[in-house]
Amino acid sequence: MADAAGRLTALAEQVLGAPLPVRLRAWDRSESGPPGTPVLVIRRRRALRRLLWKPGELGLARAWVAGDLDVDGDLYEALDLLSGSLWERGEDTTRTSGLTALLSALRDPGTRAAGIELIKIAGPGLPPTPPPEEAARTRGGRLHTPRRDKAAISHHYDVGNTFYERVLGPSMVYSCAYWESPGSTLEEAQRAKLDLVCRKLALEPGQRLLDVGCGWGSMVLHAAREYGVSAVGITLSEEQAAYARKRIAEAGLADRVEVRVQDYRETFDGPFDAISSIGMAEHVGSARYAEYAAELYGLLKPGGRLLNHQIARRPLTDEGAYEVDEFIDRYVFPDGELAPVGRTVGQLERAGFEVRDVEALREHYALTLRRWVANLETHWDEAVRLGSPGRARVWRLYMAASALSFERNRIGVNQVLAVRTPESGASGLPLRTREWRG
């Protein structure tokens, strides 16, 4: 096939009615498009067949994971440029409408000739097999049961602790850091986040802390070492729990810190003085969120505080059902759901909590993700060896795209401080609540 890149560029611009913002390089080594921009590399014609058989984001993701599609140049710039053309053409669009317009050429009589041309360029063939090693293994059964949630968590977290060490760095914290300045190190910013949470919870020696979704144990270790509390961390990941227990033993804190493989719905040894839930509530699901809030309320003593740190999506204009991101659902966080911060606050209040503070950390997460991507790229060969080429490519794409989503205000992240206020009404908070900044 002669000049595949030129034919694809012409086809895309004909259907989209706008020039492509990036350069294309096809499998026949032909190139087309604006010079000096990142290059979208279509390594195999199979990439086009993936899009034809599975239009939209999932087809693109499979092409990327399989290595059929790549970017030569700045990945952030490429994603940002494409998000203004293929992904988001139109003010009210948040999904792949531009790409859908291109693929709808197969069905629309007015653009059927373009659709036929796309089929010719893609070549004949059955649907390509998806990259099997990355497919989520959680399908079947009711959504967000303890058993299915455990399978979903295992898919994302039980991939080898060394892999996460290379991406997250020594802090081993897998949630938004708190940046005193952009020049801080990732470890300094993660320590600042853990300390901010402890101060918001007003932790004191002798108190009991429950950390829901404790990961590799960084929060319970920090709270016990720096604030003198006794802490219980719960996770559904066997690998996380083993890693956390080893860290706790090495720190000499096994008498005050315990990590369990346990669902929040199966935790019955309250009351606790404080509860932290950092980057865990995204796994709960809208159908279970009221139960989650009620369970945590019941585990707190009167006057106890909850710090809920959670990614938020923008509200839908029609308040419709949550629209699952197929790439994230299939390759990153199976069964994960994002809710607007207003809905989260409402659910916590309905459970009985008094919400006292909401702090938005959107820009902080963008900085965090860019550091994780840099870590992954620095340790790329080892990350591929520890996981697989597909998994490393999944992580690079989802973290880079997520960084841009936070930067462009498509999603946010918030710390919500809530209190189980006793009947007396004494919340225990200072009159100037932001004094916890130190």
UniProtKB/TrEMBL annotation:
Descriptive protein name: Cyclopropane-fatty-acyl-phospholipid synthase
Transcription regulation among keywords: no
GO biological process: lipid biosynthetic process; methylation
Gene3D superfamilies hit by this protein: Vaccinia Virus protein VP39
Entry EC number(s): 2.1.1.79
Spans annotated as Disordered: 123-144
Pfam families on file: CMAS
Protein's organism: Streptomyces netropsis
GO molecular function: cyclopropane-fatty-acyl-phospholipid synthase activity
Domain called Polyketide synthase-like methyltransferase: residue spans: 163-422
UniProt keyword annotation of Methyltransferase present: yes
Keywords carried by this UniProt record: Lipid metabolism, Methyltransferase, S-adenosyl-L-methionine, Transferase
UniProt similarity note: Belongs to the CFA/CMAS family.
UniProt-listed InterPro entries: CFA/CMAS, CMAS, MeTfrase_dom, SAM-dependent_MTases_sf
